Amino acid sequence: MKPILRVLAASTAVLALAACGSGSPSGGTEDTAEAAGGELTKVTVGVIPIVDVAPIYLGVQEGFFEDEGLELELQPAQGGAAIVPAVMSGSMDFGFSNISSMLVAQSKGLDVQVVAAGAASTGEDGADFGGILAAPDSGIASAADLSGKKVAVNTLNNINDTTVRAAVRKAGGDPSGIQFVELAFPDMQAALERGQVDAIQVVEPFLAGGQKAGSTLVASNYVDTAENLAVGAYFTTSAKIGDDDGTVEKFTAAMNKSLEYAEQNPDAVRDVLLTYTKIDAETAKALTLPSFTTEINRAGVETLAELSVSDGLITEEPNLDELLP
């Protein structure tokens, strides 16, 4: 029997974030009765409807979480910056976030701890799962041309504006004058076509969708930032690890199986994208998949930490030993 997967609408997730409570959704004897009666432990995970999280959907589909005694409820949100406070408050057990959002959270004293890898750059310029797009007639030919332009990112002060700045610097431009605008990924291509922004930073499936619509790839910002950059990961709190380490260990084990399965079965990744995004099969076939490694490249995280300090996202370099597994 396949595990139960309840995916709430994005609007529901937003309301849940606004009404964060203090209790854990997986607390109580009813939800943790696996040992006594064979029932599954219910856990809530915050995700973003992008290619990065395909492995967790595959893990549910293939029964990896059920094998570990877990029943997942996946709650979509716009970005990691919204998921972090939900996990901190206990309204979510685990969350997916970009690395920079977690660095910022830790700098603010929040109890963030990574428990599993999520998605990493392919390391191939022009063939990565994230990139910067511009209109073909914009005059923007390279990242250096973004100086003084208006660029859309899904959330401000996170990995995407940080890596856009890094790409501009690498190309010889000055990122200080860039005006970053916060837009949800699904809204970016239309904003670009209307001339509301000069460029957009997107990840799959929106990268392939934008190129299909005629936009031009300007730079692969993750590749420009660090080799095999770890872009996103799954996290919880050290408090939850201390109080419920059994559930955390099971989640990590199932997540690692899911990542390995996704890396070995790219066609399954493309198929599962059709179940939680609005893309069509043709776009899913054309998009570039991330590297779904179970290991987090610490050197890349160190680079992001240094950039977060130099760009003013945080005031001092974080303790990566406390953040990373």
TrEMBL record:
Keywords: Signal
Domain SsuA/THI5-like: 52-268
Highest rank taxon of the organism: Bacteria
Signal peptide residue numbers: 1-18
InterPro entries: SsuA/THI5
Subcellular location: Periplasm
Family designation: Belongs to the bacterial solute-binding protein SsuA/TauA family.
Name by which UniProt lists this protein: PhnD/SsuA/transferrin family substrate-binding protein
Species name: Arthrobacter yangruifuii
